[in-house]
User: What shape does this take?
Amino acid sequence: MCSDLLNLEKDIRILEQLGVDMLHVDVMDAHFVPNLTFGPDFIKAMQQKTDLPLDCHFMVTDPFLMFGKLTLRPQDLFTAHVELKDVDYRDLSEKVHQTGARFGLAVNPLTPVTELEPHLPYIDTVTLMLVHPGFAGAKMVEGIMDKVGECRRFLDGHGYPGIDISVDGSVSAERAAYMAGLGASIFVGGTAGIYRKGMDLKETIPYFRKSITL
Assistant: This one.
């Protein structure tokens, strides 16, 4: 969302050169969140242009529909939202894992991490939303960073220390450093992180990476 969409391939090449680990793609359907962004065809086009893993975050009411229109690669990550009560996450996870890709669940700011408990055997990552999802540049929810430590303790306490925690929304380098200490290991760099006004990616990415190197 934060890239120059009319010159996205150029941006991808810069991100590759600067050593980012994944490309985060926000897919929104104007139902689960009040915005409409990219779809399966956009993801397919990106897959043709880069070998970097795509971290696909589906803020949609029907993640099965999205899965059926994609060809996931082993390095990709498919993330749905835990708030969807009528979705068989075990089945979706199995389908995603059959492609070799990883499967994760995202948690909105007002959703307790305990909602993850029945799904822990099927997930590889948890994405903690630090803003109310839907738009780039949203303000971080006050006090939300402490949820990272809460989530890490919850996962470890239930016997899942291998599940990675991703943090998404207003993640600056300074905030990323703090959350790394709390147990986060994947950091979505948006307008607060690497797409900072008046700064070049060649400046912001090395600075951001340095902040999360423990």
Observations:
- The mean pLDDT is 95.
- The chain has one domain: 5-211.
- Strands lie at 23-28, 54-59, 77-81, 102-107, 125-129, 164-168, 186-188.
